Amino acid sequence: SGREPHAYIFAGPEGVGKFTTAREWAKMLLCKSPAESQHEGKPFYDSCGQCESCRVFGADSHPDFHTISKELVVYTKDGKNKKPGIDMPIDVVREFLIEKAVIRPSLSDHTVFVMLEAERLNQYSQNAMLKTLEEPPAFCTIILVCTRLDRMLPTTQSRCRTVVFGSIREDIIIKKLQEAGVMTTEARYWARFSQGSLGVALTWSKLASEGANAYEIKKRTVEMLARLKIEDVVDAAEQLAKDASVLAGLWDKIDPDTSKSDLGRRATKGVMRMLCCILNDCMQLGVNKVDSLINSDQENLVRDLARRFDPEEAALKIEAVYKSMDWVGASVNEKLIFEELLFNLI
């Protein structure tokens, strides 16, 4: 029809530019004098960066741009004593999207709503906003940012234009990390650890500036797993839980808007991801693939560990780690999770 969609789903891994793109798209839509140029023979539009709308947007105070997250639950009518949970509360959807979507813009000709972590919308929340997605006001654009497209209902997806974001090349991530002052060996680790997510790689490397060297924690974790004996499991689990706690505490300085419980889960899963990377390297060594080792800086220790089990056993142990990740969001004590996990990894 030649018309731009009124609702989008930006789907892809964490840290690959979905929210950054959503902001730039919103800035262009809200701009009073968008700049037009040609790109590969097609018209290309961008914000002018100079009008009142662009200046206000740059100051993070645009009245027609709305970012929605589950942390907004404390600002809902009945949310005074509520804490952000795992799912996106339906009250947030109703009060910050459905009710506000019909309000006319006050500065620009459009309003833009960007919902973060849309994969946390449960069935009831998604059903509640279907009419808004299908028939929003002509001036309203809605962007749902998610990491798990499979968690979006078919009825939600059918009402949106889906834009899929892919992983970023390893060499680009390494270059960006080096520009941020990260040494090449460490940069290579975070590039592979992040599975192509520049945002994740930058965040983990940035923790060092806040007082916790995540790279040193990673090296200690490799040493621990390579030398782990059954009598050491309890102490090792306690150390991993402490490492996750330290990382979560410092993450709060980098990302103060995210709830402490979410940061705790993120840090714990991050430490578990380190364990997965070690086991993945064991699988790679089992089939003589050395070039793609994530822990290439500690290859000898990984080889010692790889001698204890074959690639199939390593795959089963990786599966055990992912099963343990499911317990992280269930309010189970982190030390107990790590204890059971390490017993399964011996």
Descriptive notes:
This protein is α/β, with parallel strands linked by helices and 346 residues long. It has two domains: 7-164, P-loop containing nucleotide triphosphate hydrolases (Rossmann fold), CATH 3.40.50; 211-345, Zinc Finger, Delta Prime, domain 3, CATH 1.20.272. It is 50% helix and 10% strand. It is built from 15 helices and seven strands. The chain has helices at 18-30, 52-58, 90-98, 123-128, 130-134, 154-157, 170-179, 184-193, 198-206, 214-226, 233-254, 260-286, 299-306, 311-328, 334-345, and strands at residues 7-11, 35-39, 42-46, 65-68, 111-115, 140-146, 161-164. A five-stranded parallel β-sheet has the order 4-5-6-1-7, sandwiched between helices. A two-stranded antiparallel ribbon has the order 2-3. Helix 8 crosses helix 9, helix 10 (214-226) packs parallel to helix 13 and helix 11 crosses helix 15. The termini are far apart. The model has no long low-confidence stretch (mean pLDDT 89).
